[in-house]
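Quick board copy: two proteins, each given as sequence then tokens.
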Amino acid sequence: MQPTMNTWVEKFAFGMAIFFMILLPILWVFIPMSLSLLLEGRMDREQIGMIVGLTALLFAFGSAVFFPLMCIACSIWIESSHFRALTKAEHELSDMILSDLKTLPPNWHPNGAVLICENVVIANDYFKALLWFFRKIVGGRSRSFERLIERGRREVTVRVLRKAKECGANVVWNVRYETAIVQANNKEKSMAGVEIIAYGTAFSITGE
């Protein structure tokens, strides 16, 4: 099992995001439609007023309060769940050796060397984007994006170790990381997420 989470929380948050993205345009169409029915005399003013009032209240509450708070709560929950899963996976793989060194110890005798390459893309959320916006105004350390990149590096490292273990190796040597920013709509200053690639040579060793 990969530590990347696909829990009911992620599915719920993703589903609600799609729901609101579909609901808001429908509301924009529904209100003028109700007004047109009023002008045609098919509904009286009290009925139209009640419908429009409830629709406006639902629209305002959903777009201004419920939806942002739900997204923030889900993003925090998803991030913390991912870190817990990564900690568990790293503990399970603690018997594997990983190093960024190029030269092997002289008493090692590697067997069955194979190149391992894995990648991961971690999406940014609007809560982090908002924090990033205010951080750019005053400057300083952006801890929210540090955690985003940390999640990516730890996730891709776990994937590399798992793949190496599947190949029968117990060492991953000369590990390298490449990081790329995934931009939104080709905007240079926007950040939709990060992609991190890790690769190294996996082998089993004999000797001490």
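And the next:
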Amino acid sequence: MEKKLYVGNIPFRLGADKLKELFSAYGEVSDVFIVKDRNTGRPRGFAFVTFTDGEAGDKAIAELNGKEVEGRNMVVSEARPPTERQPRD
């Protein structure tokens, strides 16, 4: 069963290919989505990585949470489902 991970505090210049390469060491990655600012198109410093196998995702969390990548300690955890946001005035 698939497992989606939240990956925070990633370097802004780290691209999807490099992120996929980093996480693929733990299993098959089916998707990498780097969240970007709507107005500027710049990365916001976090992403979502989806593994085809839940155990591989668990292993990646255990191995990569807190790992330093290009001077930043990544935060890796299981992604939570999105919540409803209040509309802005």
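Board note added afterward: The chain has a mean pLDDT of 93.
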